[in-house]
Each structure stands twice: as C-alpha cells, then as structure tokens.
Design brief:
Elements lengths: L5 H18 L7 E8 L5 H9 L3 E5 L6 E9 L2 E7 L11 H12 L4 E7 L3 H14 L3 E6 L1 H6 L2 E3 L1 H8 L3 E3 L8 H12 L14 H14 L8 H10 L2 H10 L2 H14 L5 H23 E3 L5 H10 L5 H44 L4 H39 L2 H14 L6 H8 L3 H7 L6 H10 L9 H12 L2 E2 L2 E2 L2 H27 L21 H36 L1 E2 L2 E2 H15 L4 H9 L7 H9 L11 H10 L4 H13 L4 H11 L2 H29 L1
Parallel strand pairs: 1-4, 1-5, 5-6, 6-8
Antiparallel strand pairs: 2-3, 3-4, 7-9, 10-11, 12-13
Helix pairs in contact: 4-12, 6-12, 8-9, 8-11, 14-15, 14-21, 15-22, 16-17, 17-18, 18-28, 19-21, 19-29, 20-21, 20-26, 20-27, 23-24, 24-25, 27-29, 28-29
Length: 710
C-alpha cells in the first residue's frame, strides 16, 4: 500500500486544488493523475479509449477553445485519472493545441506522463520523448502499433531501449489490447515510486552546457514547479510562448527571478542557433538510439512508397483525388434516393396520424398548424433529406480518413495553398467543411499562425457542407440529368456537384490569396506534414465516428435550429395582410434585386429564411410557390421539375441557385462558431459579408453572360 505523511497529504491537497482551478480537472486525493502525450497518428487516442472505456468525457481547457478528453480507470485497487493531451510534435509549442499539451506537462503536476510513439517511425517520435524526460521525473514510453511494425519487418529490442533510456518501456498494439495490461502495471510501479529511474540525459555542445550550468546555479532551487535543466534551456533559447505560460502558472516573485537571470545572459546569445543546435542534438540522439535498438527489414515501406509514387505524383495525384471525390458523390447521390424517399414517406405518413390525434382532441387549428405543419413537418423534411446522404457520405469519408488518404490530399494541394499564400493545413480544415462548415471552422485550431487561421475560417464556407448537398443534388437532377427509360442518370448530377466542389476549392484559393495580400497581409508559414502508413479501416471506428460523431451531431444541430425556423416560417405563411401572406409580401419586395441575380424574390427570401439550416431551402420555395400555409413535399423529381418550371424557372435560374447555394453566407451555426473561435464580431461579419458579396457578384455576371448569349 502507498503511504504518505500528513505533510505530504496537505501538500498534495494544495497541489490538486490548484490543478483543478488551472486546468478544470476535478481530482480527489485517492486518484493518480496521468497525462497521455504523443505525436499525431501514433494511436494515442486508441490507448486512451482502451484504458478508459466508456468512463470518459470531454470539455474545454479554461480560456481555450481546445477540447480535452479525460477518463478514469482502475488497476490493483487504485484509481487513475487519464488526460488525453492534444497531439504535438514538440514542447516548442506553436499552435494552441501544442501550448495546452506543453502547459499541462510542465505545470499540471501529473503523477506520470505516458508518451505514445509509432513503432514504424519511432525515430521521429523520440524528440518529444526526450523533451518530456527533461520536464518530468516519471515518464513511461509506449511503443504502439507493433502489429504494423511486424508487417514491415521491424523488430524493436525492448530490453535494450529500456536500458538506454532508463525509463519503463511497453510494446503495444492498443487496438487489439496487446500491452495494455503491461502499461497499467508500469503506471502502478511509477506512481508508487517502485521503479528505479536512471534516465538518459541529452548532452548539448559545450557552450550550451556551460550556460545551462550557470542558470541552474543562479536558480539555486528557487523554482520548484519546473525542472531546473528544462527551465534553463528555455531561458537560454528565449521561448516567448513558454514565458507567457509561466506568467499564468508561477508567482510574481518566481517570474522576477527568471527575468533577472534572463536579462543577465541575453546579450550576445543567438537564440535561433541555440534552438537549432538543441534540436540537432536530439535528432542525432534519436538516430543513435534507433540504430542500437531497432532492426528494420529492407522493404519496410516498399508498399506504401509504391502507392504514394502514384497517388501523390504531380501527374496522377490530383486526377485520382478528383475521381475519388466523384465516386464518393456518385455513391451518395445514387444511394440516398431510395432511403430518402422511404424515410420521407414514413415520417410524412406519421404526420397524418398526428393530425388525426389533434382532431380527436379538438385542438385549435393554429396549434395544429404551429406544431404539425410548422414544427413537425420541418423536422420531417430535415431528417428525410439530410440523414440518408450523410449516412452514406460520412462513412465513405471516414474510410478514406482511416486508410490514411486525407493527408495525401493535403500533400497534393499543398503547393496550391502555398501559391495562394495560405497555410498547408488549411486543406485539412477544408476537408472537414464537407461534413459541416462549423466543424471546419473548429478544425482551424490546428493552424499555428493567427493570420492564416483567420484566412482558413473566412474561406471555409466555400466548401459545400452537407446541408447544401441536398439542394445541389435535387436541382442538378431536375434540370441537368438525362432521362433514360423514365429514369434519371445519377452520373450527371454527381458530375455537376463535383464541378461545384472544384469551383468552391478554386474560390477558396483565390479568396485566400486576396486576403493575404490585403486585410490579412503576411508571409505564409511552413509546416511539417506527416504521411501516416496505409492501414485497413477499422469498422468499429468508421461506424462510431461517421454515425455518432458526425452524422448524428450534424443532424441534431440541424434539427435544433430548423424546428424554430419551421414555426417562424409557418407564421409568415399564415398571417395575411391585404389578401396575401407576409411571405409573399417579402418576396415581392425582394423581387427587383433578385431578378438582377437571375433568381426571383421567393428564392432569395428562401435563402435568407434558410439561414438556420440550409437544407430547408427547397421546402420554403415550394411552400411559397404553391401558396400553402406549410412546407410541402414533392412526390417525385418530375413533380418538382413541373412546379419549378411552372413558376418561371429556367436553366439560368437553376445555374444561379446552384452557384448562390455554393457561395452564399454561412449558416447561423457556422457564424456563431466563427464568433466563438475568433472572439470578434468584426471577423464574424467578415465571414458573412465576403462570401455574400462574391455570391451576388458571381450571379450578376452569370446572368449578364447568359442573357447576352441567349
């Protein structure tokens, strides 16, 4: 049993109370706090999920938009709190996620830090391990993905690497549970002070070591919260972000001591050279360690390289990417038609049952109108139109993600983003926008530069989200699909929607370039993109991520904003002034401006009213055209085509509806997310007005050219 003195218990209580305030993590004395760190794509989250199971939850770090995951697990009658830190390559933090990970390791007082590495590329991961070893006394190394290493003929000598590092080492394959019990045993040994550490020490060149020794003497044990050697290195290399963090976690007197020492040694120091020398020494140590402890087969990456030679080549890379995109859209269009019709029939059929119930209860007409024709009918529309495409698109997207293909997309497009003076990671956030632009905006947290993050936020809307896909698919099918034996050809709509996506990407690049040359001037920063190995998709993860984390999340968001919108629109359609409902009065007011865009007042008003959820655009249009008091459904593509043509739609109208749907303002959820991420109404307004102006200008130009030709 692990005993502590009364003094120790009191100090522990103070430490953990402080921790709770700083990092918003509630922890009791009986719990041991464990930090889980590692590079991206090492399987760190798989380790976390295996250890904690369902006993986990997420939240936000205080003062940060970065989400944290934490959970509990038990082992040998002891309880542990496990905190899954954001993936980071180094404690030289640049992005918000890396700052959070660095601060928790340095100032969060965890009882132990688990560093997860990838067995197939352990050398790249060791730099972070060396830095953590300098910061924390209790470190455990988990070499994960051993099953992948075995396939690539990589053998790791566990005993040798443990001896060299002087810390516990666990060989694991977290997705199958291999090594997880050994990891729990190692954690238990470490937190109970039963492991005899003899940690490897990285020695730098003589000049740096002399400065480190001088700073440590000056500190003379005055800063107990930080390892003297690590603190000395940060004082020497002048890590500004680290000093900013210290001001939040150290006392005023401690900061004064550090500033005094820093001022003494600042003159004559070339901080960039020091940083480069430190990194070079760590990389050399990693290479030496790998050569001693790792045996590699001759063709360990032969298969991956042969595939990458094709799909990331200058000639084939982008065409393959476009073909895959076309395939995903085609399968989504083709596969969603029948289940969408079936679901719509089911939900709208249930509406008749509810209507009968209201009649039996003698409910007033207005209540039936608000709750059934407004609220429920909108809900039925959103679910039947959105759920089937998302249930197909998101699993396909997740499979590509699981395979390791999405980083290859970023690699293929990186040079285009560089020419557009944007950050290469913007491509990854753009991909997130296909599911939901709000999710894409949140994804911009991975971009280090605040300027480039703003560019990515403002331009993310040009990628069509799942709420706009139903409109694009329906309109392109109605007006541009070839009829064969009474059936529509799904390939043509898929081709048109793919073309719209390409146009959206082009607009993203153009607007990114213009922003970087005007209101957001600056030099594009560089970044390291790690191409993970190709892996077989995990069916469980595909189902959970695509259905629970993405499909249901986006659907619930749409439902929560569409329901009040449905009630509001029903009121507009049922309150009459001078013989016409308010909906038609507003449409007539907007008609002159809408005609300039090749639209009409009803279409433009529908875009405005669809601000809460893009997927209710067509129902609003049909409701106004048919002069119904509630949203209406269309029985088939033919009936929709007939309704639209009878109300003056032409090919120009269809083209401009598609273009305006692609380019116009973000939905309300995305706008609120922009406000939350930027903390500024100014940039939220920019995120609204810039795409709006572009959409209006594009439609005016299209209308002028079309009328000039035809």
């Amino acid at each position: 049993m692990h005993w502590r003195s009364n003094v120790g218990l009191m100090q522990d209580s103070i430490k953990r109370d402080s921790l709770s305030n700083l990092f918003n993590i509630e922890i009791e004395k009986k719990h041991h706090l464990i930090a889980l760190a590692g590079n991206p794509n090492t399987g760190k989250s798989t380790v976390f999920n295996y250890l904690t199971g369902m006993n986990q939850h997420t939240g936000n770090w205080p003062g940060k938009t970065v989400v944290n995951a934490r959970g509990k697990f038990k082992h040998k009658q002891e309880e542990y709190i496990l905190v899954d830190l954001p993936g980071t390559y180094s404690l030289f933090a640049t992005s918000e996620e890396e700052v959070v990970a660095r601060d928790f390791i340095c100032f969060g007082n965890p009882d132990a830090v688990i560093v997860v590495t990838d067995a197939t590329c352990i050398e790249r991961n060791l730099n972070l391990l060396f830095q953590v070893m300098e910061v924390h006394d209790n470190v455990i190394l988990v070499i994960n993905l051993m099953d992948e290493a075995k396939k690539k003929n990589i053998y790791i000598n566990k005993l040798r690497i443990e001896l060299e590092l002087g810390i516990p080492v666990v060989l694991a394959s977290a997705k199958t549970g291999i090594g997880m019990n050994e990891l729990k045993d190692a954690v238990s040994l470490v937190v109970n002070k039963k492991y005899q550490y003899n940690k490897m020490k990285i020695l730098y060149n003589q000049g740096i070591e002399e400065k480190i020794e001088y700073v440590i003497k000056e500190l003379d044990g005055k800063i107990e919260k930080l390892q003297p050697r690590r603190l000395a290195l940060r004082i020497i290399d002048g890590d500004k972000r680290f000093f900013e963090s210290m001001k939040r976690y150290l006392t005023f007197d401690e900061i004064a001591i550090i500033e005094k020492i820093k001022n003494k040694i600042d003159s004559g120091l070339n901080k960039e050279n020091i940083r480069e020398s430190v990194n070079e020494t760590c990389f050399q140590a990693a290479e030496i360690l790998k050569n001693k402890c790792v045996q590699e087969g001759k063709n360990k990456f032969a298969r991956d390289r042969r595939i990458d030679d094709i799909i990331t080549s200058k000639i084939m890379g982008i065409p393959i990417m476009l073909l895959l995109l076309l395939g995903v859209i085609f399968l989504t269009v083709k596969g969603a038609n029948y289940p969408s019709a079936l679901l719509g029939k089911l939900l709208f059929g249930f509406q008749d049952i509810l209507t009968t119930l209201f009649e039996a209860l003698n409910a007033p007409d207005w209540l039936h109108g608000v709750l059934i024709l407004g609220l429920y009918r909108t809900l039925a529309w959103v679910v039947s139109v959105m759920l089937p495409p998302m249930a197909i698109f998101f699993p396909l997207f997740t499979i590509l993600e699981d395979l390791g293909y999405l980083p290859r997309v970023a690699y293929n497009l990186d040079h285009l983003f560089k020419k557009s003076c944007a950050h290469g990671k913007q491509c990854l956030t753009m991909c997130m926008g296909f599911g939901c632009n709000a999710a894409g905006v949140i994804g911009t947290r991975i971009i280090d530069s605040p300027r480039e993050k703003l560019i990515a936020i403002i331009t993310n809307n040009f990628v069509p989200c799942n709420g706009r896909f139903p409109t694009m698919i329906a309109i392109s099918t109605v007006f541009f699909a070839f009829i064969s034996k009474g059936k529509y050809n799904s390939f043509i709509p898929a081709l048109i929607v793919t073309g719209l996506i390409i146009l959206g990407i082009m607009m993203t690049l153009i607007v990114s370039y213009l922003l970087s040359k005007t209101i957001l001037k600056g030099i594009p920063s560089t970044f390291t993109l790690e191409l993970p190995p190709y892996r077989k998709p995990k069916i469980g993860r595909v189902i959970y991520t695509s259905i629970v984390n993405r499909t249901m999340f986006v659907l619930w968001r749409a439902i929560t904003v569409a329901i009040p919108a449905g009630v509001f629109i029903w009121v507009l359609g049922n309150v009459y002034v001078n013989g016409q409902n308010i909906l038609n009065h507003l449409a007539k007011f907007l008609d002159p401006f809408a005609i300039l865009l090749g639209l009409d007042g009803i279409i433009f008003l529908a875009f405005i009213l669809a601000l809460p959820a893009n997927e209710i655009l067509i129902p609003i249009i049909l409701m106004a055209y048919l002069s119904k008091g509630s949203m209406v459904d269309f029985d088939s593509i033919d009936s929709l085509r007939e309704i639209l043509i009878n109300n003056g739609w032409t090919y120009l109208t269809a083209i401009n509806v598609l273009l305006f749907s692609l380019l116009h303002w973000p939905c309300s959820t995305t706008l609120l997310t922009i406000k939350k991420e930027t903390g500024s109404w100014k940039w939220t307004f920019a995120g609204f007005i810039i795409p709006t102006i572009i959409a209006i200008f594009t439609c005016i130009c299209t209308t002028f050219i079309y009328r000039l030709i035809f």
